[in-house]
Every structure is written in C-alpha cells, then in structure tokens.
Design brief:
By secondary structure, the chain is of the alpha/beta class. It has one domain: Purple Acid Phosphatase, chain A, domain 2. Helix content is 30%, strand content 23%. It has ten helices and 14 strands. The strands form three sheets. A six-stranded mixed sheet has the order 1-14-2-3-4-5, covered by helices on one side. It has a six-stranded mixed sheet with strand order 6-7-8-9-13-12. β3, α4 and β4 form a beta-alpha-beta unit. It starts with a helix and ends with a strand.
C-alpha cells in the first residue's frame, strides 16, 4: 500500500470511529435528557440573539468596534411564513449593526417561496450595507432566480467575488463564495486551476483583513490555508434536533457529517490564525421543529 492510500485509509477509519462514537452517544442519551428535548420543541420560533466579540487579524484601527449582524438559513417555506420573516427582519434591524451578512438558504424547495422572503427582507438596512451569498437550497430551486430576487431589494449577492468596506482610506474585505463552488478551494490550495476561488480573491492583498461568507462550514480547514481571517457559515442549523452535548461535541445527525456544527472555531497555523462562526440559523428543513437548538441571530463586534 502506498503512503497516499494508507493516509486515505487512516482518514476513513477516523471518520468511521467518529461516527460510531456519536451514534453510540446519541443512543445512550439519558431519559432525563430526552424528556428535556420535549420542551425544546417550542424553540422553533423563539429566536435567540447571540453576542460575540472577535479579534480579526490585520484589522485596521478604523474598523475596530464595527458590528456585524449574521443571519443565516431563513428557509422561506410553509413553516416560515411572511409574518415570521417580517418579525425576523425587524429583529435584525433592531440590532442596528454597521453591516448585515446573510450566508444563504433563503428558500427551501420551490420558487414560490421567493416572493415572501423578498418582501420580508426588503426593509433591511445597515449603514455599510447588506450582503448575502447562496446556500445549497438556492441551487435546488434556481440560484440565478433567487439571487436576482434578493438583489432587487438592494442586497448585494456575492457570488465568487469580494467587496472592500472603506474607512479613512483603510479597507476591510468581504468575500462571498457560491455554495456549489466552495469545494474548489481544495484545488486552489494545491496550486491547481480553481477559477471561482481565484475570482474570490482577485485584488485582495495578502495581508488584508478578510471576512468570508461560505454557506457550508465543511471547508474551514482548507479556507484556513488561504487569505481568510474570519469565515461565517450556516447550513447545519446547529444540528436542529440536538440530543445532548458531550463537552463541545453536539450530539446530532449533523455531527456525523462534520465536526463544525455551531458556534466559534479557530485554526492556528504558525503565526496565522483563522476563525469561523457557524450560525444555528433561523429556519428548519425536513421536520418543522428544533430540539435543544433555538434559532439564532448573531451580532459580532470586531476587535
């Protein structure tokens, strides 16, 4: 067996071991915890506002104290009505952040879900702008159609591109990658052709302060090897149905797919530090419920 295949086998064994551990842990959750889950079902519409302060590498002094509202996975659907989304938009505006970032999944399964989310989000405003990117459900429906709808209300859809926020001549770069292109980062860090990731970084200086919107958190390890200081994601819904927690491990089906499920993570490679925040999101998929996992809007203050 060559080294490459041996390493691949080792990684596969680690994944299987992790899945066995999580599966066994879920099966052994106590009856008391399960009883607690029942009360957790009511959290589907009880949005929790989380506050985080994050020190961003290379951040110019002009941007220290800048506030960002992160709201992901709205999922317009029969279970996320126009009225629900209007309440969410009102809550987002009430935080009065400098910037609003919406990393995908505005719709769920059908293009008819687009008009109500567009109407609800049309009231969003922030002094330095409202920005968004696509999630996987945009591609299930029609990513171009959804993007056009979101852009029609003044929200900038960032699809493999960057935008510089400016203060007194200093810049903070926002980046947004299309959900179906994020895997290209693997080729990018290997020095191979990756046109969408190359477009993402076009014009961004190597030592710039950067914030990346990437719907799925799964490629955090790879993006940490590129010019990203902070990655903001959603997709996992924080597990949506959470049976319990062991330390920082969330016991949910999402945990079997990835170790990145909710909250703050960081990777330090020598002098380089990259962080990620994974939002629990706002909507639901498959089952219209959340257990021990309330929906979340996050206000991040940069330091």
């Amino acid at each position: 067996m060559n080294l490459e295949s041996h390493e691949s086998e080792k990684q596969g064994q680690k994944l299987i071991t992790r899945r066995k551990f999580l599966y066994g842990s879920i099966l052994t959750v106590s009856a008391a915890a399960i009883t607690g889950c029942v009360s957790g079902i009511i959290t589907r519409k009880n949005v929790q506002v989380s506050y985080r302060t994050i020190t961003l590498p290379n951040l110019p002094a002009e941007f220290k104290g800048l506030t960002i509202t992160l709201a992901s996975d709205i999922h317009s659907s029969p279970y996320m009505s126009l009225e629900d989304m209007q309440e969410i938009a009102g809550l987002i505006n009430s935080l009065k952040s400098d910037v609003i970032l919406l990393p995908g999944d505005f719709v769920t399964t059908h293009k008819n879900e687009l008009p109500p989310v567009v109407e609800a989000l049309s009231v969003l405003h922030a002094p330095m702008g409202v920005f968004a990117t696509t999630g996987n459900h945009e591609f299930y429906v029609d990513a171009d159609l959804v993007s056009e709808g979101i852009e029609s209300i003044g929200i900038r859809m960032m699809r493999n591109e960057n935008f510089a926020l400016e203060k007194n001549g200093k810049k903070l770069y926002l980046l947004g990658v299309d959900d179906n292109n994020d895997n290209e980062v693997i080729e990018y860090i290997e020095g191979k052709s990756a046109k969408h990731i190359e477009a993402l970084y076009t014009g961004v200086p190597e030592n710039a302060a950067t914030i990346l919107m990437c719907h799925k958190p799964y490629r955090f390890d790879e993006f940490a090897k590129t010019n990203v200081g902070l990655m903001l994601s959603g997709h996992t819904h924080g597990g949506q149905i959470v049976f319990g927690r062991i330390g920082e491990t969330v016991l949910s089906l999402s945990s079997m797919a990835s170790k990145y499920v909710e909250g703050h993570y960081e990777i330090v490679n020598g002098a380089k530090r990259t962080q990620m925040y994974v939002s629990r999101g706002l909507g639901t998929v498959a089952l219209p419920m959340r257990i021990n996992c309330p929906p979340e809007i996050t206000q991040i203050t940069l330091a």
